[in-house]
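hey all, quick one before standup. I had two proteins in the batch that finished overnight and I want to keep them in one place so we stop losing track of which output belongs to which input. First protein below, input sequence then structure tokens straight from the run.
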Amino acid sequence: MVTAMTDADLITRYGGRLPRYTSYPTAPHFHEGVGAGEYAAWLAALPPDAEISLYLHVPFCDRLCLYCGCHTSVARQERPKRAYARALAREIGLVAEALGRRAPVSQVHWGGGTPTALPDGCLAGLMDIIHARFAVAADAEIAIELDPAALPPAKLAALAEIGLTRASLGVQDFDETVQKAIGRMQSFEETRAAAEGLRRLGVGSLNLDLIYGLPYQTEESVARTARLALELAPDRAAVFGYAHVPWMKKHQALLPEAALPEAPQRLRQEAAIRAVLEREGGMVPVGLDHYALPGDPMTQAVKAGALQRGFQGYTTDRAPVLIGLGASAIGTMPQGYVQNQPGIPAYEASIAQGRLPVARGLELSGEDRLRRAVIERIMCDLAVDLPAMASAFGARPEALLVGAAQLRGFLADGLVEWDGARLSITPRGRPFMRNVAALFDAYLDRPSTQPRHAHAV
């Protein structure tokens, strides 16, 4: 029997701190026992035909938004940016040498920070090196994250040189009061000019990032932002809840904390955005926080049960290898995870010494692989067949669940359905998807090397 719980009751019960599950085990459990030597061996052991995705992290912005949780900083001078670009170029070479061949690449993703913060010629020059050292597929997806307010015509034109196919524009919120509070002034006209400019370049897929849970936001204001976003004709939208972690990101302490919405308000804001995107924009919900048009490849991947989730969020990329390049970048290998030095000086020092700049990582056990597969299907499909999944890994399904008591609570509260084999998340339970995934997280209560996670809702 389903209990009559209000949203506030559910949040009180389930609103603790949880991972976003862009990996399993999650990054706080990486350790220094995995370093450059292990990474080099893992690269050398990859099958010759293994497809690879590349992620290049640019830790610079033209402005520092107060809500930001990324590894980035504001650098006014050109010299450190060019030095960083040279280090990136050398790291590309080090990885290619460890691979020992021009490995096939199916996707290149530029993230940050703001990649266009690099000086003129850097993006194109690095892309030329990638083409020289890797066999980039003719139909490879070349994606980039952009700040519309830092995209003058010259920067926009430079993007044509890297073969861009997909772009993600940071919108966050169009309300001026909210923008002032978060230190990110950005007009709708600027954003529209950026979107139209990207379309003129031939960019076929446009994503917009929206955030709820920011200071001074209301249900009405986030709905207005969502409607304005739809005027830009996006193919996809990502709707993130602001993660307030000032103990990790000191600049977040500058936000007016008293103006941050409480958890029930956050939940209603998310619902308001969702209603606009689905009912007025015709978008289809994808996983926890993404939306896409019905004909989009991401929507098709959902229907086919082929949606993936990684450190860049939801993706259609099926490559078994993600190589992270740049300071703080994380890579995913069949053998495990590696993360580069987070600080630019340490990163550049490693590169200067001819070493892969790995700071820490984690080698996957057989149990890790099974639990990773279960959690990924929950986060992507909102359902998982536990006996079938366990059988595929030669394991017993009854050993998977680490939160049996919590599962009984989820059933009573109508968040999940369970027939003894298939576990599925109900529409009511969708905002609590990470709580359901945590039922299978054997690491959650272990000590970690990093501060804990943001609130689940």
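OK second protein, same deal, sequence then tokens:
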Amino acid sequence: MDTVAEIKKYVEEKKSLFLEAADKIWSYAEIGFKEFQSAKALTDVLKAEGFSVQEGVAGIPTAFVASYGQGHPIIGLLGEYDALPALKHPAANAVPSEELTTDNGHGCGHNLLGAGSLGAAIAVKDYMQAHNLPGTIQYFGCPGEEFGSGKMFMARDGLFNDLDAALTWHGGAYNSITTQNSQANLCLYFKFKGRTSHAAGSPHLGRSALDACELMNVGCNYLREHMLPDERIHYAYTDVGGTAPNVVQDHACVFYYVRSPKLSQVIELTERVKDVARGAALMTGTQLEIVLNDGLCEYIPNHVLSTLLYESFCEVGGPKFTPEEKALAAEFAKTFDPAVEEDKVRSMTTLFGADIARQYKGSLLVEDILPYKPNTVVTGGSTDVGDVSYCTPTAQMNVSTWAMCTTGHTWQVTAQSGSSIGHTGTIKAAEVLALTAIKAMQSPELLQKAREEYVKVTGGKYICPVPDDVMPAL
């Protein structure tokens, strides 16, 4: 039996374990650093499969490292399992809800991400046992990707330093290797303190913290014209000071994400945002407290390792969806905004070329593996996988787990991540990651080349984006 067939056999034999974990995590839908049941669903399986598990790492109760084997090479598999707020929706249900929800939902599909990497780790362990393959496979339970930057705190504690390589994946609308850089990101609370007063009877005695927040936001909107084209700043109010219009709000808070293509750039832009906030405080006579919550580095794909991941993906083949899954995808497609299709064509043209974009326009579920095309594109989003990529050679892929033109962080993702469409993609992810990990363990020359590229691109040293006194926001 060749390696590909053997890996598929191991994944098939254990798929009930990791798919059941995926469904449990989907139902728990716990947000960042609160994933207690979700982490347990994963560690229970890993312990039963013979992994040693170190829990509560990096000062985060829901972070863990599971290991099997000993010595080098050490290959890491990254797992995530946090949900998003206010995105609950029934599984496999393509009917939009008219009700506003405040309940959490897996609107980014991290229930699948953690489970797919779990399936891969078990398959690698089974292969190592069958062939007496030396080395170590490690599963990293990484909480708080959406909020909190769990991997950043794990990187700061040196948990990825001994790895020879790290592999991960994410659900999506097509099958590809992640070749583009993500944005570095700093996340800060701007807390304004003023003085309350009667808004009509004695407004002159009040100092509005809410006005300070609004002036800060206006100032940052003017700042947008004078930033780098790829930079982003956006915000959400976490405290509006109350609900009574006739009371001057003496407290208010706005939470900012500041993103730039590189860590050095995001630090510089953040100082400019801070200056805007200080100006708002001066204009309103309020006091300002700036709280750095977390941050993360940009993702640096390792092309030596990414090429291996692509070759393994091609050997294993893309996911094959059933007629029932394609019919379900068609129902979801009816709920998409028509503008989304044109936006998907634009983004695919940038990443893969116009021919590929035209070929898949109108597709429901993509089964093919899109070409591997290294590029210098910077995505608008951020991921704390970037911090791992500054610690060790790292590669990441996308696997079809939802219908084409599905937009991330939506109820449609939640619904499909709890469906058999998501399961089909997760099984495929487990196969590809497992095959890549085994090939890497058997190829010391390749790992050396990946290390040389990593050192050349990153300098071979991780620089944490936040000071040591910033702790996880548990």
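Flagging for whoever picks this up: The mean pLDDT is 96. The radius of gyration is 23 Å.
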